[in-house]
Specification:
Layout lengths: L2 E8 L2 E15 L4 E7 L3 E6 L2 E5 L3 H15 L5 E6 L4 H6 L7 E5 L3 H10 L1 H4 L7 E4 L3 H6 L5 E7 L13 H10 E10 L6 H15 L4 E8 L7 E8 L10 H6 L9 H6 L5 H8 L4
Parallel strand pairs: 6-7, 6-9, 7-8, 9-10
Antiparallel strand pairs: 1-2, 2-3, 3-4, 4-5, 10-12, 11-12
Bound molecules: S-adenosylmethionine.
S-adenosylmethionine (SAM) binds next to strand 5, strand 6 and helix 5.
């Protein structure tokens, strides 16, 4: 007998991974949570039938969402992480001795519990003394913050279900207020390739641009996400991700990475023409 996890990437495209075991299945107040074990990708977490992290390729996503902004401003001390219940983003942040405070706001405590139990590869640094966990809606949490953070990382699910509010104008405006005068906002920015994801990407970009003078996207290849071509948004009040980037300062930190490096930092902002056209077009 063969057991396969299948995810619908579009109405006409499916992506399947052969699995050995269905390790855990739970229903929280917010979503269905599953963990599987596969030969090719190791253990992986899905929420409402959508891939979140696999042990094999999570390093790409987590290194890119953290090291790109950290290399633009290595002085970052106070970080707000929204979503990110698997812990991978926090794990990468804790590698910077200069970071003093990491507030992580995850709406679903059960995701963290499941990841602590089954995905220690990503959840391993959630008990770092600099990390404070808040189990509440990120949209509500940022409303109350003013001039508080050097960096906000939005490591959310897609813009439907509990993640929907994290793609709204209200949320981006509140992130702008919650950031200090030289603050940076980085978010998972969906994929440009398939229609539904591309529309979410365009909408997010257009909304962020209304609040931040510097607003761009960068890309990475993430094999288990729809189409494999994934984007991150980089928005900031001052810092340009290339002009203010000091490769030798980041290299001097001696952080060993598997995907990110300072040549790739420059290259990942060079995006294909079709993506540029999508981002520049006026309609949402
Ligand atoms: N790397 C992943 C991806 O792009 O597929 C995201 C992983 S992380 C598990 C996403 C987390 O965002 C989930 O655990 C989910 O519960 C959380 N989340 C969704 N909406 C949220 C909200 N409004 N406030 C805080 N966390 C939220």
């Amino acid at each position: 007998m063969e057991l396969w996890y299948t995810e619908q990437h579009t109405d006409d495209v499916r992506f399947s991974i052969k699995v050995n075991k269905h390790i855990c299945s739970a229903q929280s107040e917010f979503q269905r949570i599953d963990v599987f074990e596969a030969v090719e990708f190791g253990k992986f977490l899905t929420l409402d039938g959508l891939m979140m992290v696999t042990e094999k390729d999570e390093f790409i996503y987590h290194e890119m969402i953290v090291h790109v902004p950290m290399a633009v401003n290595p002085q970052i001390k106070k970080v707000l992480v929204i979503g990110a219940g698997d812990g991978g983003t926090v794990r990468e942040l804790t590698r910077y001795p200069g970071i003093e405070q990491i507030d992580m706001v995850e709406i679903d405590e059960m995701v963290v519990e499941v990841c602590r139990e089954y995905l220690s590869q990503t959840a391993c640094k959630l008990d770092d003394p600099r990390v404070k966990l808040y189990f509440e809606d990120g949209l509500r949490f940022v409303r109350t913050k003013q001039d508080a953070y050097d960096l906000i990382i939005v490591d959310s699910t897609d813009p439907f279900g509990p993640g929907e509010g994290l793609f709204t104008k209200e949320f981006y405006g509140n992130c702008h207020n919650a950031l200090k005068e030289d603050g940076i906002l980085v978010n998972q920015h969906e994929s440009p390739y398939y229609g539904t994801y591309a529309r979410s990407m365009k909408r997010a970009h257009k909304r962020i641009k209304e609040f931040f003078p510097v607003c761009g996207v960068y890309q990475a290849h993430i094999p288990t996400y729809p189409s494999g071509h994934w984007l991150f948004g980089f928005a900031s009040k001052i810092y340009d991700p290339l002009k203010h980037f000091d490769a030798s300062a980041w290299n001097a930190l001696g952080i060993h990475t598997q995907y990110y490096n300072t040549a790739l930092h420059v290259g990942c902002f060079a995006i294909p023409n079709y993506v540029k056209e999508l981002l520049d077009s006026e309609d949402e």
